[in-house]
Amino acid sequence: MPKIVMYSTQVCPYCQMAERLLRQRGVQDIEKILIDKEPARREEMMTRTGRRTVPQIYIDERHIGGYDDLSALDRAGGLVPLLQAA
């Protein structure tokens, strides 16, 4: 299973939906970086992704994007192969 990293906040409904989708696809471990608890990590997220909103999801070193991007990837049949690649 590849490494999953998700920049998130504690109260973000899209973050919760992204986590739920990943878990439904068999992901057990998600490294969550809570930018509301660690404000310095917000700047890291923005530099790394070029985006300001959460969630921002990485599968290994590949930036997937936010929940809408993750969901579209899943609907297109691309998520499961990515999760099985490693």
TrEMBL record:
Organism superkingdom: Bacteria
Alphabetized GO MF terms: glutathione disulfide oxidoreductase activity
Any Gene Ontology CC annotation: cytoplasm
GO biological process: cell redox homeostasis; cellular response to oxidative stress
InterPro entries: GLR_AS (IPR011767), Glutaredoxin (IPR002109), Glutaredoxin_subgr (IPR014025), GRX_bact (IPR011900), Thioredoxin-like_sf (IPR036249)
Transmembrane segments: none
Keywords noted in UniProt: Cytoplasm, Disulfide bond, Electron transport, Redox-active center, Transport
Keyword Electron transport in annotation: yes
Protein's job: Has a glutathione-disulfide oxidoreductase activity in the presence of NADPH and glutathione reductase. Reduces low molecular weight disulfides and proteins.
Protein name: Glutaredoxin
Gene (UniProt): grxC
